[in-house]
Amino acid sequence: MNILYVTPMWSGLKDILIDGKEEAGGMPAFINPLKKLIEGGNQVDLLIGTDSYKQDLNIKASWLKNSKIKLLKWDLSSNKLLTFIRTYYEIKKRIKEKQYDFIYSHGSFGVLGVLVAQSLGIPNGQRMYGTFLHKKINDPNYKIFLKHPLEFLSYRINKSFLIMTNDGTKGDIVYKKIAKKSNDKFYFWLNGVKQSYSNNADSNLQSEYLIYPARITPWKRQHLALEVLKKLHIKGYTNIKLIFLGHISDLNYRDKLIEIAKENNLIESVVIKSSINQSELYTHYKESLAVLSFYELSNLGNVVIESLINGGVTIAWNDGSLNEVITNEVNGFLIDNEDEASEILEKIIKKEIDINLVKKNAKKKAKTTFSSWDERALKEIEIIYKECKLSRE
């Protein structure tokens, strides 16, 4: 089949298209189904909206060698309406150049691909990866549309299907609020997980560092981890270090984190590592003192899932998103503030908590809760194939 992806430039996608990496460092929910589709013999092309549209492609991932990839100008710093219109017609022009069997649109940007596909009568679906709209759930629809037009339309417009990640941001509730009643093919799925890499890692290793795997951006709230580190150092545990692992999405926030670290004499104990391969990350899950996740909206994401499957000691913000995944003090820890986090870490350091039991319980729970990425990706692909078959009948 000929399939066209209409998508923004996710951080993991940038890794393999622009930065010349053979392996994406993020967004497995996007990368894994894409790779499986291509490996299944489909021709998959990509139209990618990005403000870095003038950058040259640098592709070393062999599985992408036959895909036609086009970067589209996507700059919302000027007139948004004109940008929407211009991009719509650019997508339409590109789609008309080739006969596609299916248009697969991603993120709220992708709804422009949905609109084009609908106008041309091409089967299409959309994939969303979480939402910020739950905070607006009590607003009338017209207000939501005016403030967030593309995301509103992503829920509102009919299409073959909409797949939404169940990441704790309550996308199912947002969908019920906005969608038309005729939009009945809505799938609300947990992310998958890749099985542990370094199975021989010593679970008894008492490492002296914390990790915070996440893109550097304000809503990921890395500054709270600095506060926890500060409290540990005040208690006398000055040997403990903190490693931030993730793409730098917001340079100003990165600079703010460095400033906070300097002000609190923590700079020698803080590392920011923006590039890391998956096997190294999985080793850190196993060997670090703890994996911290203090996101603002939801913590039911890849970090917690991967930490659990690897037997990491997970300390996450108690926002309600992990109630079905983590039982406090059994397979991880749920905290309401930085003081609680530092107190738990002190108990771990003093060996007052049976960490090996927590690690064992974490892996056991993850294996019974989450599908493998192979299973999860194939499930998504089956829906695409099904919709294409229905369109031909």
UniProtKB/TrEMBL annotation:
Keywords linked to the UniProt accession: Transferase
Domain annotation Glycosyl transferase family: ranges: 199-364
InterPro entries registered for this protein in UniProt: Glyco_trans_1, Glycosyltransferase_grp1
One function term, GO molecular function aspect: glycosyltransferase activity
A Pfam family it matches: Glycos_transf_1
Protein name: Glycosyltransferase family 4 protein
